[in-house]
């Protein structure tokens, strides 16, 4: 037997952590574990990835290993293996035919974050830009309302605090994020080791909330009232940084009347949080230095954009911006590590030399658009499992079953989405190709290394789209650039003085030795060059000039507000097909407060029918006193085809939009529950 090699790579999933991974390899067999020297993973991956990366990901029987063509009715799961040439030839022929008959905008490009590694995520977009396809705006299924809101206020949503600055923080306010599940290493290490007072705002008493010094538990969709009340206390108690506002913000005068009206008593009545807790949290946060983590769960609400604008007023108003230990984070984009994402996604120079793409479509409208032959002749779904993660699950299935819709699906596994496709292409997993990972929390840059061969004929996204471009007769050099050249160019442009071999050796680098201070230069890319607490841009878009102290109405009658956030055991919809993960997940449940269940005559363990605006779903009732009255909790991430009902929680979700960015308001879903 040969010696064991130890190789470094990085988890590229849609997760804040971007863990460093150690791969032990001998005779072509590998075992995956956390990199002990990596400051984030510290020798331990999350439990779901430990299972899946040593389980279903390496299981050739579970993986797609060859291109497939449908050989039975849509959705029946009957496919015949074909060669890459035949599959790509068939795709090229149909895409050309749709483009000729209807125009290329009738070809839809649906993609998201199955992998966030830079090339596999973005290089294929060069192909779609050349084609002139309609993009299904990726962030509309996740976090676009928050992006739009933060751009109104700061001109930028992807330039967050550097987490290392927490060493100078006295308080960390986590607002509508649940790192115990969605960023497990930040929950386990970063938060407690900061030594800061931890304030968590979450309607659910999550593990993150349990670990907090102060847990504020608002009714979902009432956070703007809380934000205004915190500003009220800060203002009343002389904790507003008038000098910072005068120098760097516009619109505080317009906000102030709302702030003065938003007493803690008023907010307590709307949010359900008691006055003393509001007062205490306001003083601790305002005293600072404080960090604000704006979670993605926070803005998946009917008024989610307004909520984020209101919350985003806290850092400048209290002087918690522009000095060590302060700032806010929604996401840290790769540009903060000088990665040229525009070039990666287009291969071209500045945006000016490209033809304008057709207007994007929201994921909230995808089912409707796909049902319309005039608008949708073909769909390419890659890096996403729309039949599990999108709203209007039943309507989407019907649309995907249209005989005259040509669907290509690209994945590692046979998902609900690939089952409904005409051509299925097998994608390589992250252990099987080289790439770069840029965490969206840490300001680090990491290598993703090929440590094992892909199963069968699977190929990375990049190579699939290079070959498809060739099959289509597109000969633009940008569509043919090999991965090693793209990687080298990205690293060279970033100018951190490392090439890919050096990055692989290091695993992860932090381009700056010292934490950067967010907005240290107080240069805000808004129209005024300042923080816009009142925004003419928002007004021009038909929105209020300032955030408003408004909340969602409480559900009427016996309706409950359903929250379906991240699940501990899946990463979005991934890993539900891993045997160990599936065992841990158990049957699908919906949790209510014990008093809520009792008031409805429902006992834990009962089978209930949950009815939402788009459909109904049988679930097992559970009770949890961390869930408030009037709210139900059922995490996302199950595969419809693995459920007895053939559906998951998105069968309930009608695709209601938030107030900004055509984005999802999934946590605004109202349901009723009845015994089966
Ligand atoms: N009810 C409800 N629904 C939600 C949400 C919610 O909170 N509640 N959250 C929403 C959010 S935040 C998001 S981000 C979406 C996520 O929804 P999705 O993007 O659909 O979920 P993922 O599981 O991240 O990835 C989808 C697929 O990508 C595949 N994949 C992984 N790596 C690769 C690769 O290298 N190449 C290719 N071609 N495929 C790959 C995986 O196998 C997986 O099947 O779901 C949304 N849906
Ligand atoms: N294990 C695991 N990790 C993941 C994912 C996963 O599916 N599983 N998904 C990844 C993806 S795609 C994303 S976008 C991130 C998301 O990760 P986070 O940013 O943590 O967001 P969510 O988990 O969607 O929701 C966080 C919290 O928001 C709360 N919430 C819901 N409504 C409200 C409200 O009205 N007000 C307030 N204050 N809180 C509210 C929910 O109760 C939940 O606990 O996680 C990533 N990490
Ligand atoms: S999903 Fe997140 S926590 Fe799990 S291994 Fe990947 S980066 Fe780490
Ligand atoms: Mo997401």
Average pLDDT level:
97
Q: By helix and strand content, what is the structural category? A: alpha/beta
Distance between the termini: 58 Å
Question: What is the CATH first-level class name of the largest domain?
Answer: Alpha Beta
- Main beta sheet, described? 8 strands, mixed
Q: Can you tell me the overall shape?
A: globular
Using the coordinates shown, work out and report the CATH topology of the largest domain: Rossmann fold
Number of domains: 4
What small molecules does this complex bind?
ligand MGD, iron/sulfur cluster, molybdenum atom
Name the quaternary structure. Answer: single chain
Point out poorly predicted stretches.
none
Helical content stands at: 25-40%
CATH architecture of the largest domain, please?
3-Layer(aba) Sandwich
**Binned strand content:** 15-25%
SS summary, helix count? 27
In short:
It is built from 27 helices and 27 strands.
Describe the protein:
With 676 residues, the protein is an alpha/beta fold. The chain folds into 4 domains: 54 residues, N-terminal domain of TfIIb, CATH 2.20.25; 200 residues, 3-Layer(aba) Sandwich (Rossmann fold), CATH 3.40.50.740; 187 residues, Dimethylsulfoxide Reductase, domain 2 (3-Layer(aba) Sandwich), CATH 3.40.228; 116 residues, Beta Barrel (Barwin-like endoglucanases). 32% of the residues lie in helices and 17% in strands. It contains 27 helices and 27 strands. An 8-stranded mixed sheet has the order 5-4-17-16-15-6-7-14. The protein has a 6-stranded mixed sheet with strand order 23-25-24-27-22-26. Strand 9, helix 8 and strand 10 form a beta-alpha-beta unit. Helix 2 packs across helix 21, helix 9 crosses helix 11 and helix 9 runs parallel beside helix 14. The longest helix has 19 residues. The radius of gyration is 24 Å and the shape is globular. The termini are far apart. The model has no long low-confidence stretch (mean pLDDT 97). Bound molecules: ligand MGD (2 copies), iron/sulfur cluster (SF4) and molybdenum atom. The site of molybdenum atom has 3 residues, from loops.
